[in-house]
Amino acid sequence: MRTKLALLLAVLFAATALPAQSPYKIVDKWKIGGEGGWDYLLADPSAHRLYITHGPRVEVLDTTTGKSVGAITGLHSTHGIALDAAGKYGFISDGAGNAVVVFDRSSLATVATVPTGGQNPDGIVYEPSTQTVWAFEGRSKDVAVIGTDPGAGSLAWKVLATIPLPGKPEFPAVDGKGNVFDNIEDKSLIVHLDAKTLKLIDTWEAGCTSPSGLAFDVSGARLFPVCDGNKMAVIDSKSGHVLATPSIGDGPDAAGYSDANKLAFASSGDGILSVIDASSPDYKTIQSLPTAPRARTMAYDSGADRIYLVTAEFGPPPAPTDAVPRPRPPAIPGSFTVIVVGR
């Protein structure tokens, strides 16, 4: 009896010692083709869509098939996408156009173009409690807050306020209750803004160097900026205290968070997708999945528990010049691809 009990306890211990979640892996690749660079992408789980900025256009894919459902075209140089809470409109930061483009999500038709008044709108987010769009501008180092006047109609979008920032902003995140956060890349800071008063209320150390992508555990009040030096920081969004700095890949540009699985993600230019256990107080890196070189931007799809990354094949870099001492290798036309990661 004692032997059987010991064996049973050993089996139960081994079962509880196994990882609670199976590892992620590459499950598909969708070739989009075309030409031009890219920046952020955004998943819409309820509509089964993936929005991808791609040069002067935004590609829109059906995430159940990987097929194109259309594109928003006629822009200059796209950077980010935001979606309203009602499922009606989307918003694109058109960097070279110094504008935010509003589009209809059912037809993908452009319905408004709003000049921001600043330079190079980049990271962009919709703030649902105030129904405003926040476009963070890299060159003018500010944020343009866009909304409508009460009773003016849903298409009467305009800049309601411009808030100066202490440096070059990167990716933003919101909690849905009026709190807006953003990385300040050149100063290694996090800023906390109030969407209701339209004021900057806190400036915190990011805990790592040159933060770019930013994910947010809203229920747990944890921010996850990803940085140079192979680090992600974990920051208490109420106090600004740095809680941990788990290791990630080199050259990250985007982050994601799964509330259901309590996992944080970072995609890096060295072709590594890092997975961090956010349920543990030490925030361990539990997986480093090889993806593809330069697959440094990503979107997390909470409905399918999938991560989408984009990259392309590259030719040899051009010769360096005084103006461009470290030229980037050009993307080979037609090679632009979405990498689908799941379990």
Concise structural overview:
This protein has one helix spanning 2-17, and strands at residues 25-31, 38-44, 49-54, 57-62, 68-72, 78-83, 89-94, 99-104, 110-115, 121-127, 132-137, 142-148, 157-164, 169-174, 179-184, 189-194, 199-205, 214-217, 222-227, 231-232, 234-236, 242-244, 252-258, 263-268, 272-277, 285-290, 297-301, 306-311, 337-342. It has 343 residues and is mainly beta.
Q: How is this structure best described in words?
A:
- The chain is mainly β and 343 residues long.
- The chain has two domains: 22-40 and 207-318 and 332-343, YVTN repeat-like/Quinoprotein amine dehydrogenase (Methylamine Dehydrogenase, Chain H, 7 Propeller), CATH 2.130.10; 75-205, 7 Propeller (Methylamine Dehydrogenase, Chain H).
- The protein has one helix at 2-17; strands at residues 25-31, 38-44, 49-54, 57-62, 68-72, 78-83, 89-94, 99-104, 110-115, 121-127, 132-137, 142-148, 157-164, 169-174, 179-184, 189-194, 199-205, 214-217, 222-227, 231-232, 234-236, 242-244, 252-258, 263-268, 272-277, 285-290, 297-301, 306-311, 337-342.
- The model is unreliable at 3-19 (pLDDT under 50).
